[in-house]
């Protein structure tokens, strides 16, 4: 995937230079560019240009980095479980250029202490009623926020449902507007859409490969339903998420339905909660899974955490999985 990322990076670099390919980055003046109004989780929100932006976790952070916005950021909050994935990220130089404010979950005290004027996170994957950091609470303190469109699925009294890839494209386009880098966002989204369409066109005929997405858990596995990015990744790659019938984002299920689905491939999410080798060793040794084609034929595919969460590397993940399915004749 390195050559594809390099090609995209070259195209986006061009669009970072206003004179090079017509990018219309709003000029900074004493009063700044005019605020913009966008839809987010069913609400119309007006945003002045953020000057001290904070992003939570890899999903938020890499959306910012993919749009060339590292220099607009006050800092990031990155749980320590993401550390190995950060070190593998193609955006590692950007990560190193931005201050890490905390290695814990997103907290109101951290955001306020940083002097943030804008926060990017997901609902229940950053923002949280239980932890007292919500868009409403931030607004009371004069801090704007933006929620991942994918997470609008379970936010508020009137949830907004958007398929995961469309949610990703929406986020990138809306962030482009908020930070006045619309051309950068348009170039990135166009590339992602083109690559996604190429994958759809290349999907083999016949029954798609049955894929189980394994995040973690021994007593009960934690997996992706149809409202999270891995479901779309598997579909693009030519597979079928065996838990895709669940109207959930990430959720816990029993082992019985997993075994009943007889997955042909198990895709294991790799991040810092546990070495991926240990996860695979558990799956291989877990007696109920012994009869599944995935275990019998040793078909384990590893998906990096930074590719599994909603972000610009979702298409990379789909391309990698598609290549793996071709390699095993599926």
From TrEMBL:
Keywords: Signal. It comes from the Bacteria. PROSITE patterns: FE_B12_PBP, PROKAR_LIPOPROTEIN. Residues 52-330 form the Fe/B12 periplasmic-binding domain. Belongs to the bacterial solute-binding protein 8 family. This is ABC transporter substrate-binding protein. It comes from Saccharopolyspora cebuensis. CDD domains: TroA_a. Residues 1-20 form the signal peptide. The lineage of its organism: Bacteria, Bacillati, Actinomycetota, Actinomycetes, Pseudonocardiales.
